[in-house]
TrEMBL record:
PANTHER family: HTH-TYPE TRANSCRIPTIONAL REGULATOR BETI (PTHR30055:SF234), HTH-TYPE TRANSCRIPTIONAL REGULATOR RUTR (PTHR30055). This is TetR/AcrR family transcriptional regulator. Residues 8-68 form the HTH tetR-type domain. Keywords: DNA-binding, Transcription, Transcription regulation. It comes from the Bacteria. The lineage of its organism: Bacteria, Bacillati, Actinomycetota, Actinomycetes, Streptosporangiales.
Amino acid sequence: MAGRPVDHQRRAELLDRVVDYTVEHGFNDLSWRPIAAALDVSPTTLVHRFGSKDQMLQDVLARLRERIFAAVGEVADHRPGLAGAARAVWERTSDPRREAEFRLFFAVYGRALQSPRQFSDFLDHVVADWMASLRDAQGPHADPSTATREATLIIATIRGLLLDLLATGDRARVQDAADHFLSGLQGDL
């Protein structure tokens, strides 16, 4: 007897709700019952849609990554070049309305470094996706090793600034440093 097929639209809608829940509550105590209660579904529905909590967490992280890339891409489309792309990334990630997303991001990052096998998909994408995007922003004629170096510096600097901002809340100081860094990109490229 075959089970009923997965309704992909319903699963996507439910995934978006689970992502919102996880951003708000974190993932350390992620369990079926509280999520199901908050979303007004049964735990069985979650199991049917996601299979396991590990799979649900992987799906949450992938969808969050998709959301961030889509939002940054919309802004970056209006700002050509590496400096424009880097500024778009910074503005999206440092937006106070996105603070919970990036608290979750850094929480997962730390846990992934401690459990790389469990979070291999996250680790495979956490640098590679941004690296590809920032290398592409440098244009087709950029020297590959220079493009990789520039992208690496931007990723590391933005993540460091974002971590500082989340840890201290000192928006003025961190924004000043970000502006200084980003304005330097325009002169170098």
